[in-house]
Design a protein that fits this description.
The protein is mainly α. Helices cover 77% and strands 0% of the residues.
């Protein structure tokens, strides 16, 4: 399913209204803010128990594994169940899992919130995240039409909302953990998901329900396999998917395990929030700069610069420099990677989830056995190698072909 098509056109006689678009953008802001807080809170709770990077990796991997499966079927599931229903179900599951943490602590004691419990809750909370995101995205075109906005304008607002949420979320998480503790922070996270549910339930759009039978894919698996066949049939998409697979496997453990481990050892949760905010701020600026960059640079050059910069910055972070330097390096990583999402399409992003758990399996034990500097370096060297190898991949030149020139390549 392509999220750019709502599946049903809004009736021509509907009264123009910006209300659905405003509600949709606010719901996306609330849900993304909840996820942004969770990114910090879950690993922090694990590391506060005994400082084990291995256990933090287990929880992070548990949160990533469901994304691989659910992202592959997200579009088709939305078609079958309906956009509004899937969005609410996703937020309900996320909100229930984070609220379970303080409920268990209150009823059974803080000791009940162990690694197994946190891993299970993180996995359940992430299970429907891709479907929820797809559901909200797929309502954008109809909401834009009702508001009288262009789809480009609406997409721009949507991406800006997500970036703002992921800027504020980690920072808020750091401040909350420092003031009310990690367990109580989960109450605030649950409140954000509850707000998203309320806002989505108020949206009235013709295309918010399930697709009519004749417009659906033949089945969930048929929709998933069609998307994968499309990616693999185009050489440039296949190359991008493999690069993204490798880079995500190396990058995700840094954000979800190594940074939390470092700042947990320093007992500075607020600083962890600042670092993740720096990544998001850089990403927001980079994304906004993309339309200007692509006028002067090829997409291939943008991708190669991002990949190599990520590797070099990670190598410098391996020296565990002062906070100000880490913030600068993270902002630079976000800045160069901000323009990359517009280059990748949705189907390829779903494939990248496969590498996350593999990276977590390696990063945790490495950090416990050899320390953070060596682990950061172990992630940085392959990143740089991938960037250098990408320079010599001829298929990446197809990134700058005009749409009229694109055709499947075996």
């Amino acid at each position: 399913m392509s999220w750019s098509s709502p599946g049903r056109s809004a009736p021509a006689r509907q009264v123009p209204s910006r209300r659905p678009a405003h509600l949709l953008l606010l719901a996306a802001l609330a849900a993304a803010a909840g996820n942004g807080i969770s990114i910090v809170a879950f690993p922090w709770l694990v590391l506060q128990r005994n400082g084990s990077a291995l256990e933090a990796s287990i929880v992070a991997a548990a949160a990533s594994l469901p994304l691989l499966f659910s992202s592959l079927i997200a579009g088709t599931a939305v078609d079958f169940l309906g956009r509004q229903r899937v969005s609410i179900l996703s937020d309900l599951l996320s909100g229930a899992t984070v609220a379970t943490v303080p409920v268990l602590a209150l009823t059974l004691g803080a000791g009940s919130v162990n690694v197994a419990v946190l891993a299970t809750l993180a996995g359940l909370g992430a299970l429907f995240d891709p479907a929820g995101i797809t559901a909200r995205q797929s309502m954008l075109p109809e909401a834009a039409a009702r508001a009288g906005w262009t789809i480009d304008r609406t997409n721009g607002w949507y991406e800006a909302v997500l970036n703002v949420a992921y800027i504020l979320g980690p920072g808020v998480a750091g401040l909350l953990i420092a003031t009310i503790g990690g367990i109580n922070t989960m109450w605030v996270t649950a409140a954000f998901f509850a707000l998203s549910i309320l806002l989505v339930s108020m949206i009235r759009l013709e295309g918010a329900g399930p697709l009519v039978v004749e417009k659906r894919a033949e089945g969930v698996w048929a929709g998933m396999l069609a998307g994968l066949r499309f990616v693999w049939s185009l050489k440039v998409l296949r190359t991008l998917a493999l690069i993204d697979l490798a880079i995500n496997g190396l990058y995700l453990p840094m954000e979800s395990v190594l940074f939390p481990k470092h700042f947990s050892d320093l007992k500075e949760p607020a600083q962890l929030g600042w670092v993740l905010m720096a990544l998001s701020v850089g990403g927001l600026i980079g994304a906004l700069a993309y339309p200007l960059l692509v006028r002067h640079l090829s997409r291939r050059a943008i991708l190669l610069t991002a990949t190599l910069t990520l590797g070099i910055c990670t190598a410098l972070i391996a020296m565990l420099p002062p906070l100000a330097v880490i913030l600068l390096l993270c902002a630079l990583i976000g800045l160069v990677y901000g323009p990359i999402p517009p280059i990748y399409n949705y189907v390829m992003q779903t494939m990248s989830y496969a590498a996350g758990p593999l990276g977590f399996v390696l990063a945790g034990p490495l950090a416990d056995a050899f320390g953070l500097p060596l682990t950061f370096l172990a992630l940085a060297v392959p990143m740089i190698a991938i960037g250098l190898a990408s320079v010599f991949l001829p298929s990446l030149h197809d990134l700058d072909r005009s749409p009229q020139q694109d055709h499947p390549t075996a």
